[in-house]
Amino acid sequence: MEAVPRMPMIWLDLKEAGEFAFNAAVKKSAVSVPRDFEGCSTLRKYLGQLHFLQSRIPMGAEQDAAVPVTWTEIFSGKAVTHEDIKYEQACVLYNLGALHSMLGAMDKRVSEECAAGAFTYLRDHFPHSYSVDMSHQILSLNINLMLGQAQECLLEKSMLDNRKSFLVARISAQVVDYYKEACRALENSETASLLGKIQKDWKKLVQMKIYYFAAVAHLHMGKQAEEQQKFGERVIYFQSALDKLNEAIKLAKGQPETVQEALRFTMDVIGGKYNSAKKDNDFIYHEAVPALDTLQSVKGAPLVKALPVNPTDPAVTGPDIFAKLVPMAAHEASSLYSEEKAKLLRDVMAKIEAKNEVLDQFMDSMQLDPETVDNLDMYNHIPPVLMEKCAALSVRPDTVRNLVQSMQVLSGVFTDVEASLKEIRDLLEEDEAQERKLQELLGRVPPAPGSPPGLAEVSKECSKYLELHEKASFTNTELHRAMNLHLGNLRLLGGPLEQVRAALPTPTLTEDNKQVLQNLKRILAKVQEMRDQRMSLEQQLREMIQKDDITTSLVTTDRSEMKKLFEEQLRKYDQLKVYLEQNLAAQENVLKALTDANVKYAAVRKGLAEVEHKWNTTVQTLVASYEAYEDLMKKSQEGKDFYTDLEGKAAKLLERARAACQASQAQRQQLLERELKKQPPPRPTAPKPPLQKKLPELEPVGPEASELGSLALPDLPEELRSLPPELLPGPLAQLPPPALAALA
C-alpha cells in the first residue's frame, strides 16, 4: 500500500472582494494574494490589523464609523454588502481557510490543520448571517472535510513510514469517521440547497472515500491478525476489506482516472492478501473464520486537530500599526488588571512572610550558623592575624634578646640605686644609735645640741628618694612579671610555624561525631536551599507581574470578555504559585528534621565550643604578647631613664650623708671631752680585788674613730684615778677621755 496512487481532495474557492473604504494599496494586497504560503501570511497580517483597527474605531454594525464592505458569495456569485468591519474580517478568514485547502490538495499534501482552524474560528466567533458560504452548516461541513483530508495526509505518511498495522488501521478508521460527519452534512437538505450542484459531486466522492478507507482499515487489521497468527481473523478482515473496496469501486463511476488507478492498485493488494490467506487457512491452519460483527470494531485515532487562530498574535500579525491609539476603556481595564495582579501578589507574599517569620524565629532559637556549625577548617590553618605577627617577628630576630637585655640593664641600675639608698639609711641609723649611746653615757650631762643641719636635709631627701624607689619598685616588679609572661609567647611567635600551629588547640572528633556534623550540615544546606529557592521564586513572580502588560490585548477585547481575559492571563502565574506552595509546604518537614539533628548535635556542639574558646583565647594571648612588646620596651627604657637619674641623685646624697655623719661624730667627741673635764676627781678608796672590767663599747664613727672599741682592763688603784691620762702607765695613757671616764 506504500505505492498506492493518491485520492483527489476537495478544495474551496476564494471569495472575491468588492467595495471597502480602506486604503487602496492595503486592500489590493490583502484580497489579491498569491496562491502560496506567502499569501497565507499576508492574509493573517491583514486579519490582525483589521482586528486592531476595529478595537479602536467604532466600525462595527450600526456604529458611527461603519462603512460598506462588499464580498462575492461563493455558491451564487452574488455580491453581498454589510456595513460592518467584522464582515471584512470574516471574509478574509474564510479565504485563509480556502487557500490552505487549496495548498493541501496539491501534490505535496501539506497538513490541513490550519484550514480547519480558520473555519472553526470563523464558525465560533462571527455571525453566520453574513452570507450562505459562511453559514453554520457550511462551515461545519468544511471543518470535517478539512480534518478528514488532514487525517488522510497523515495516513499516507504512516504507510510510507511502515508504522504498525494496528496504528495505521486506527488512523484510517478516523478518516472514515471524519468523512461520515461530512457526508451527514452533505445529505442535509438545507445544506444541499445551499451548495447547489456541487453538493452531488462532493457527496459521491466522500461516500466513495468512506468505503475506500474502511477497506484500508480492515486490510491493516488483517495484517495485524497475521502478525498475531490469528489466521481465521485474518481471513474475515481481508474479506471485509475486499467487500468494502468493491462498494467503493461501484461509487467511483465517473471519478477521475487517478481514482480508478488507486482503486485498481488497492484491489490487487487486498485481493492477493485475501486469496493467499484463505488458501493457507483452508489447507494449512484450518482455523474457524469468525463473523465480522463478533470482532472488536476499529476505533479511530484522531491525530489531527483544528489549530486555534489568534488574530492578535504579534508573531503572525506583525507590529500593531495602531498601537498608539489606546482607548480610555482599555486604560481603565488595564488598571483593573493591575489590581488583580496586586491582589495575587499580596496573597502570595502573605503566605511567604508567615513562613519566613516562623523560619527566622526557629533558626534564631537554634543559634545555628551553617557557615560556622563546626569550624573544623579553622583549625587547619594559622589565622591571618597571627600569621601577620609571625611574619613581623621573622624580620626582627633580636626581639626577645633586646627585651631581655633591656630588662637586665634596668635590673642593674635598680640594684645600684637600692644599694646606695640602703647605705644612706644605714649611716643615718648608725648616727642615731651613737647619739643615743652618748646621751646614756653622759647621764647627768644636759642633752647634746641638735644634729648638724646637713644631716637633717640628708634624712629628708633620703626619705623622699626611698618613697620614689618604693613606688618605682612596684612598677619595676610588674614590668618584670609582664616580661616573663610575654617572653615565652614572643619566642613561640618568632619560631617555626609548625610550633605555632601545634600550640593552638584542635578538636578531636569520633566517627559518630563526624556523622552527626555531616547530617546537620546537610539539613542546614537544605534550609538555605529552601530559602534561596523561595527568594528566587518570589523575585520571578515580582518581575513577571512587573512586565505583565496586556493593554494591547485589552484594546482588542470586547468589554463582555474582559473577565474571561483576566482569568486567562492570570493563569500564567499558576505554575509559579504551585512551585511556591510546594516550597512553603516543605518547610515543616525540613524544620522537623533539623530539630532531630540538633538534639544529636548538642554534645558535639558543647565540646567544639570549649575548644573554640581555648583556641580564640590562645590566639588573643599570642597577639597580645606581640602587641605588648613595644610597650615593654618603652616602659623598660623609661625605667632605665628614671633609675639612672635617681642613681645619680642617690650617689650625691650618699657623699653628703657620709660627710654629715662624720661631722656629727666629731661633735659628739668634743662634747664628751668637755663633760669629762667638768667632773671633780674621785676620792681614793681601798684597793679592790683585781676584777676584769670591760670598757663601754662605742662604735667607731668616722675615719678617725678609735680602734679600741672594747678593751678589758684591771680596775685602777684609787690613787691613780685622779691622774691625768698622759701620766697613766702603759696602754692606759693611750685611752681617750671617754674611755677613761667609763672606767670610773
From TrEMBL:
Residues 27-359 form the BRO1 domain. Residues 679-690, 734-744 have a biased composition (Pro residues). One of its GO terms (cellular component) is endosome. It is found in: Cytoplasm; Endosome. The keyword Coiled coil applies. It holds the Pfam family ALIX_LYPXL_bnd. Its main location: cytoplasm. The keyword Ion transport does not apply. SMART domains: BRO1 (SM01041). Residues 674-744 are annotated as: Disordered. Residues 722-733 have a biased composition (Low complexity). Residues 414-444, 513-547 form a coiled coil. Keywords: Coiled coil, Cytoplasm, Endosome. InterPro entries: ALIX_V_dom, BRO1_dom, BRO1_sf. This is PTN23 phosphatase. It comes from Sapayoa aenigma.
